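As promised in the previous annual report, we have extended the structural survey to additional targets. Below is the entry for Putative gamma-glutamylcyclotransferase.
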Amino acid sequence: MTSSDQSPSNNVFVYGSFQEPAVSGLILECTPVIVSAQLNGFHLYRLKGRLHPCISPSENGKVNGKVLTGLTDGQLENLDMIEGAEYVRKTVEVVLTDTSEKMKVESFIWANKDDPDMYGEWDFEEWKRLHMEKFIEASKKFIEWKKNPNGKTREEFEKFVHEDSPAE
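The corresponding structure token record, generated without further manual editing, is:
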């Protein structure tokens, strides 16, 4: 597979729901080549009241995740939109699991490193079992919304990724 040098190519380290091809495939509207990697110096936190995790610097931390490779600028923009303002996209260095080779990639870091809502450690398998369907649904809605905002805001589908709170 050859790619022209003109096409911008972005590699993004993901550690939450986007590790799941069923979710990232919808958001990116294609299935990228995905490789396993580890990010050192960060911890994968749960967030109170939310179903998605965040990462934040942590001295001896390590986060296992995936690198979505060869993304276009448009696909990166989709990720930026869905991650929203609470995450900051930064360049980090990961180590590829299979080859131990180092790679500079983009990743989404939780903006508020002192957030009291961060706790424990997020569990991908548990998320897959309990919440994946909901995320696939939310991702479909996101893409529909992006194609036709129709007066709706990002908040409409954002509520999908919050835990169900009892009705007032």
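The first strand starts at residue 10 and ends at 14. The radius of gyration is 16 Å. These points will be discussed at the next consortium meeting with the crystallography subgroup.
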